Amino acid sequence: MSSRMSQIHQSITTIRRPWREFLNPSTLTLPISLTESTYRIRHNLHHFRFNYSVILLSILFLSLLYHPISIIVFLITLIAWLYFYLFRDEPIVMFDYTVDELVVLALLSIGTLIALILTRVWLNVFVSLVIGVTVICLHGAFRGIDDIDDQESGYGPLLSVVDG
Fold this sequence. Notes:
This protein is mostly helical.
């Protein structure tokens, strides 16, 4: 388990981007076309995925502040996701039957939906997700990608040869 935690820590530190780079106002420009804005969104989603995750989870947390029972239920749901889906090294075996990864994913998703319905905060969560996705798409569309290093993608060395 500790080796898995160190792998997770290492993967998080490789995708984490500095907030100064993320919030740099000099990189905000208007996209020329819809095609460019969608390209920027895709590129920025990949580059700043950790920062966008923190923003989305913060908005979600703020929407649940007035529902302490829901926060407790979602912490339990989060622990279930971490234990059964993220921190597992071996497949789950029940009654000498190996449970498929998709079955685990489906059961956790259904459990999360049931928790949303039973705690009666699904509308708060839906609205906060819409707000979060809107904020992320706006930032992704308006943030230029000129200063982002293409070497982190698999095509980075190829693009530097083609450009130069």
